[in-house]
Write a structure and sequence with these properties.
The protein is α/β, with parallel strands linked by helices. It has helices at residues 22-34, 59-77, 121-124, 175-189, 238-247; strands at residues 7-14, 41-43, 80-88, 94-101, 107-111, 133-136, 139-145, 163-168, 192-197, 199-201, 206-208, 212-214, 220-223, 230-237. The strands form 3 sheets. Strands 5-4-3-2-1-14 form a 6-stranded mixed beta sheet.
């Protein structure tokens, strides 16, 4: 039987991102994280150090700096930290990479599978092809990035995860889609869903946030205020999730093709 913490404290960090200014953004995030100690996991937005699709010049260096900062913060807070940044793979190709960093500096990563061609992401980045589930303090997390949210087959729960993380730069103009799909993923996969979106503006879009944590019943456990930098916290009650899955075993009847 899966062994669970009774509860896991998860913090969603809704923040502004100064376009292509990683040092400024990391300093701002250090301040925000310091306002909410004691969580087991902190989740940041997509491309949290630079904004979405900055010039590829300098992007790998900014990504490396972001990962080093995550390792420092995870150690300081004795918690895991998740968020995406530009990274190069062994072949020198650019990836939108979601890092899941632990306090000892070790990390897992997931490369965004569904690149957002509408905004030109396919021109600069290479899509990942690996589905990634990682475990932290007894809770299993599916790692996903932004546009992945629109593709439910890729994120189908195979009874192998308890929570799905979606980090995003999701524009205000499509917020109804964001809110609807986050709840849908929680309901259909009988899991917690963590959705973290940025606020502020970049050269292309305005972002109003809508960061939230949803439980397997589709209920919001916490939500950040619109258009505000804020850290919100909720508890994953793992025993409640386990009992719900036993009582109403939806995942046993899932499609397996």
């Amino acid at each position: 039987m899966q062994k669970y913490l009774y509860k896991m404290k998860v913090a969603i960090v809704q923040h502004d991102i100064e376009w292509a200014q990683p040092q400024h953004n990391l300093q701002r995030l250090s301040h925000l994280l310091g306002q909410q100690p004691g969580a087991d996991l902190y989740v940041l937005a997509e491309t949290f150090a630079t904004g979405f699709l900055p010039s590829t010049d300098g992007a790998p260096a900014a990504g490396a700096a972001a990962l080093a900062w995550m390792q420092e913060q995870a150690a300081r807070l004795n918690a895991a930290i998740a968020g995406s940044a530009a990274a190069t793979d062994a072949a020198g190709q650019l990836r939108n990479r979601l890092f899941f960093v632990r306090p000892d500096g070790n990390y897992d990563f997931y490369d965004k599978h569904h690149l957002f061609g509408y905004a030109g992401e396919t021109d600069a980045y290479v899509a990942g092809n690996r589905r990634v589930v990682t475990e932290w303090r007894g809770v299993r997390f599916l790692l996903q990035v932004c546009y992945d949210l629109r593709f439910p087959v890729f994120s189908r729960n195979r009874a192998d995860y308890d929570a799905a993380l979606y980090v995003a730069n999701w524009p205000q103009s499509r917020m109804d889609v964001w809110q609807t799909l986050l709840k849908a993923r929680a309901l259909e996969n009988q899991c917690f869903v963590v959705g973290v979106n940025r606020v502020g503006s970049d050269p292309a879009c305005h972002y109003s946030g809508g960061s939230t944590i949803v439980d397997a019943y589709g209920h919001e456990l916490c939500r950040c205020a619109d258009d505000a930098e804020q850290v919100a916290v909720a508890d994953f009650d793992m025993e409640r999730l386990h009992h719900f899955r036993q009582k109403f075993p939806v995942l046993k009847d899932r499609d397996r093709t």
